[in-house]
Structures are given as structure tokens and as C-alpha cells.
Specification:
558 residues; alpha/beta; Alpha-D-Glucose-1,6-Bisphosphate, Chain A, domain 3; TATA-Binding Protein; 3 domains; six-stranded mixed sheet; six-stranded antiparallel sheet; 20% strand; globular
Length: 558
């Protein structure tokens, strides 16, 4: 995909959304239940869409919320529901729509006081902590709390999103999301017949929403997962750019609570996100793992020991290191920081269960495999999606779960569950802890890991694909690979199911002793994603990619 000529440059007026038009579209556009692009598509990251394209409108939110109410009744869940929102323009409007349906269905709603924003990890942690002490009711039902989070993550400002976290605190599994999706689309087809609603102002005046301080519990418990005392004692200088996201007011409170040296580089809150540099494709996108979107943060790297950025719902992290004697600073590749984080944690969490595994998605760097082997730790390799880590984080059989897209979470320092969704706060603070304890930046630590375990070259390429070929991915099998070598090395494995849990990966992964590739379709766009990594050289990676494309072209014929 070609780089946009203005990528990395500050957004201009013509790049920004028209807020009035966006709001009008949200309330007035009527999605067609017969148009697949306008139906509810509720995956593990929930439903996302655009009001202008009739894929995220008030009718969608009413239908989805009623479907969630129906689902939780099916599950015997009678407890309150925590509703969080991020800073996208449509999130506040969608919040009102959600409240109208929940209160009409007599669901007790918990929300941040003062109409504040609530990051995904704060919702997850609150659910985990609350539900730990909840007992089953006599009639077999449960007073457990679950949550709705209104966010399209790092998507452009024009988009909206909503996702459901069951009582375990993490992303809903495939069964739950399929159930909710089908029910919501049925409500759309029936033109909202069966959807209960009450006017938002009546819902609020009737006391249907209980407002709580969600800041304090989360912030005060951070010391249970991160060595905050070490960071404070070492006086680590931390620069933070929330990228206008939902955790924007948390950082100053964290600094005050723990006596940390935190400077918020950018405290702007603007639903058009006018302060953002354009991403690779020329769109405004709050992607803290993108060099282009992070072009406003990287120049400040030498003013601090580490800089941290997050996406709008704060489930992802971006780590920026200063220049050093052995390394050039800048935005760390997410795979590189995951490797450093795992290596550090395996040496500095003595109370973690010795039998617990490190979780990684199978498109993450094989450097993690080498680190786990060097520590004698079990590796659990699963398909793409954080949902695969939820149960393990909940029962402490997984000590760390990470994705190459800069999302991860981990256990508390004592080995108990912290949260079961991605947490951008704790990964950023972990970078500061690493500096405080080792005296080295994460970039310097990665350089040392490469010297000890080998240097890899990793790349993901997104390519257009038509609907027919995209559908063929579901039929790909190991028989599609008819060669015995890849880039000059013997093939050691051909995978269509993840080795960690035997779940289908929705594509193909081929490995050798010196590299690998994986191919899978995008869940939301007409693209297929080719991931590849070489422990030999950039030239070897290029050869690996070329041969991978030939293999996939043959596999997708038909």
C-alpha cells in the first residue's frame, strides 16, 4: 500500500469531520436490513461503522443494546451493567441511545461520574474486582456485573463502535457475539419491534444511571500490577500523549497518586482529532503503533526517559524511546516491546505461577518463542484475537497475553488476575518500570536480546482481495502447500489451526527454522494480510514473502 504524500503531516481542515453532519446522520439515517454493509457485524471487538454510511446509527445501537439485554437474561445475569465511552464524536450520542434501552429494560446502569470517559482496561478491571466477591443468587441467577464499551478503538473520527464484555471482564467469545449479532439484526429487520426504550432525559431524571468514581479504584490498584515505587524512586521522566483518548484525565491523577514525573505532552480533547498527523493512507487515525500517526510524539523522545501514547479506548500502547549510545530512538515496533516486556517479566515476577504460560498470537514475532525457550517457559500460540487469552488470564494459567498490534495484559505481581482485556496504561508503565529497575530503555534491552538470540526482520503487507478469494480462505488446508522448502529452508510446520489451542486460524501459517509467514483475511475490509519474519536478513525476508505469495495464489485458486 503506497504511502500517502501527506502521511505524518498535521491534519488540515479538509481532513476533518463535519460534526453537525455526523450527528445528523447518526439520528436520521435508516440502515437497510437487506444491505450486508449496513447490518450489525458484532465480532470480538463489537460492532463498528460510520453514521454517514448507515453502518453505525441510532437504530443499530438500540437493536444491539436490546440484543445484549436479551443475551444477559438468557445467561441469568441480573446484576448492573457498567457502560464506558471513549472520545469519538459518536460515542456520546451512542451512550444516550444505550441508556434509553437499558433503563427501559430495568437494567441498573453504572457510569463514570461527571460524564467522564472510561477506558477499556478500567471497565475490565472494575468488572474483575467487583465480580470476585459476588455470590450466586438463590434462584440460580447471578448478580454479576458486565459491561458495554462504546468505542471504535483507533478508527477514524467519523466512526463509532460498541463492544460487550461479559462478567469475566474481557472480550465476549464467538458464541456470545454471534448470538447478539443475530438478535440485533432481527430487530433491524422487524423495524425495532420488541425493542424497549425510554426517553434519555426521563431515564436520567428517574435515577436509572448510578454515577461512580471509576478513577480511584483503578489508579489505587495499579501498584498491584506495576512496581510504581521503583518508578518513583528512580525519578523516571515520562512523557505522555493520550492522543485525545479516554484516559486523558487519568495520567495526571496517576502522577499525583504515586509521585511520578509525568508530563502530558498533549492535553487536547477534540472529537475531530485535529491535532493528529495523518496516517499512512492519509486518514486521521489514532493508531499509537503507526510511525505516521505518532509523528507528533516521536520528536519529543529525547526530552524524556520514555514516552507513552495510547489509542482512544486505551487498550493499546505506543512506546517511544530516546536515542542511546547503542540504539536510535523512536517508536518501538510492537513486537520488539512485547519481547522486552516478556523477557523482563519472566525475570522480575517471582510470585507468578511457575506453570503459567506466555500467550502470543501466531502472527507475533518468533523472538517471543526464543525468549520463552531461554526462560524454560511454556508458550501458548493462539489465533488472532485477544479473546483467546481471557480464560487463561482469568484463572492465572496465562501470565501474559500479547498481540502484534500493540495490545497486551498480564497478571498482578502476586499472580492473581489484573484484567482480562488489553491495558495500555500498564504496558506504558511497565516500560517505565523496566527503565527504573534495569537502568536501560526498552530499545536498549531489545538490542541486547538480538545480540543474544538473533535479529529478526518482520513485516506485514496488506493486499486487496475480491470476495470470492476472501471466501476461499475458509477452505485453505495444509494440502495447499505442495513445496517442501520456503526461502531455501526446509518447512517445519504447515498450520491451519493454532498449536496452543487447536482453534482455526482462518488462514495459513508456514514455518522454517529461520522464518515463517502467515496469511489471513481482514475481518472488516477487502484485504488479505501477509505476515512474515526472517532471522536471516531483509533479503531473505523478501524471498520468503515472494514465495509466500505464490503459495497463497495457488491456495486461493478456484
Amino acid at each position: 500500500m503506497a504511502l500517502h504524500p501527506r502521511a505524518g503531516q498535521l491534519a488540515q481542515a479538509q481532513d476533518l469531520i463535519d460534526l453537525l453532519s455526523l450527528m445528523a446522520d447518526y439520528y436520521t439515517r435508516v440502515p437497510s436490513a437487506d444491505d450486508a454493509s449496513q447490518r450489525v457485524t458484532f465480532g470480538t471487538s463489537g460492532h463498528r461503522g460510520s453514521a454517514a454510511h448507515s453502518s453505525f446509527n441510532q437504530l443499530h445501537i438500540w437493536a444491539i443494546t436490546q440484543a445484549v439485554v436479551d443475551y444477559r437474561r438468557e445467561q441469568g445475569l441480573l446484576g448492573p451493567m457498567l457502560v464506558g465511552i471513549d472520545t469519538h464524536a459518536l460515542s456520546r450520542a451512542a451512550f444516550r441511545s444505550v441508556i434509553e434501552v437499558l433503563v427501559a429494560n430495568q437494567v441498573v446502569v453504572i457510569a463514570q461520574q461527571d460524564d467522564g470517559f472510561t477506558p477499556t482496561p478500567v471497565v475490565s478491571r472494575y468488572l474483575v474486582a467487583h465480580n470476585r466477591n459476588v455470590k450466586a443468587l438463590e434462584n440460580g441467577n447471578s448478580d454479576l456485573m458486565d459491561g458495554l464499551i462504546i468505542t471504535p478503538s483507533h478508527n477514524p473520527p467519523s466512526d463509532g463502535g460498541i463492544k460487550y464484555n461479559p462478567p469475566h471482564g474481557g472480550p465476549a467469545d464467538s458464541h456470545a457475539t454471534a448470538w447478539i449479532e443475530a438478535k440485533a439484526n432481527l430487530y433491524l429487520q422487524q423495524q425495532m419491534q420488541g425493542v424497549k426504550r425510554v426517553n434519555y432525559h426521563l431515564a436520567i431524571s428517574a435515577g436509572g444511571v448510578e454515577y461512580r468514581d471509576l478513577y480511584t479504584p483503578y489508579i489505587s490498584q495499579l501498584q498491584d500490577v506495576i512496581d510504581m515505587q521503583a518508578i518513583a524512586k528512580a525519578k523516571v521522566r515520562i512523557g505522555v500523549d493520550p492522543l485525545g483518548g479516554s484516559g486523558i484525565h487519568y495520567w495526571s491523577k496517576i502522577a499525583k497518586h504515586y509521585g511520578l514525573d509525568i508530563t502530558v505532552i498533549n492535553d487536547k480533547l477534540d472529537p475531530t482529532f485535529s491535532f493528529m498527523p495523518l496516517d499512512k493512507d492519509g486518514k486521521v487515525r489514532m493508531d499509537c503503533s503507526s510511525n505516521m500517526a505518532m509523528a507528533g510524539v516521536v520528536p519529543a523522545r529525547n526530552q524524556f526517559d520514555v514516552c507513552i501514547a495510547n489509542d482512544p479506548d486505551f487498550d493499546r500502547h505506543g512506546i517511544v524511546c530516546p536515542d542511546g549510545a547503542s540504539v536510535t530512538g523512536g517508536l518501538m515496533d510492537p513486537n520488539h516491546f512485547l519481547a522486552v516486556a516478556i523477557d523482563y517479566l519472566l525475570s522480575h515476577r517471582p510470585d507468578w505461577p511457575s506453570t503459567a504460560a506466555v500467550g502470543k498470537t501466531l502472527v507475533s514475532s518468533a523472538m517471543i518463542d526464543r525468549i520463552c525457550a531461554s526462560h524454560g517457559r511454556q508458550l501458548l500460540e493462539v489465533p488472532v484475537g485477544f479473546k483467546w487469552f481471557v480464560d487463561g488470564l482469568a484463572n492465572s494459567s496465562i501470565l501474559f497475553g500479547g498481540e502484534e498490534s500493540a495490545g497486551a495484559s498480564m497478571l498482578q505481581r502476586n499472580g492473581q488476575t489484573w484484567c482480562t482485556d488489553k491495558d495500555g496504561f500498564i504496558l506504558g508503565l511497565l516500560a517505565a518500570e523496566i527503565i527504573a529497575v534495569t537502568g536501560k530503555t526498552p530499545a536498549e534491552r531489545y538490542h541486547e536480546l538480538c545480540q543474544a538470540l538473533g535479529t529478526s526482520v518482520y513485516q506485514r503487507i496488506d493486499s486487496p482481495i475480491n470476495a470470492k478469494k476472501k471466501a476461499r480462505f475458509s477452505q485453505v488446508s495444509s494440502d495447499c502447500v505442495t513445496v517442501s522448502q520456503l526461502a531455501g529452508d526446509d518447512i517445519t510446520a504447515v498450520l491451519t489451526h493454532a498449536p496452543g489451542n487447536n482453534a482455526a486460524i482462518g488462514g495459513l501459517k508456514v514455518t522454517t527454522s529461520n522464518g515463517w509467514f502467515a496469511a489471513r483475511p481482514s475481518g472488516t475490509e477487502p484485504l488479505f494480510k501477509l505476515y512474515a519474519e526472517s532471522f536471516v536478513s531483509a533479503e531473505h525476508l523478501s524471498q520468503l514473502q515472494q514465495e509466500a505469495k505464490i503459495i497463497m495464489d495457488n491456495a486461493l485458486k478456484g
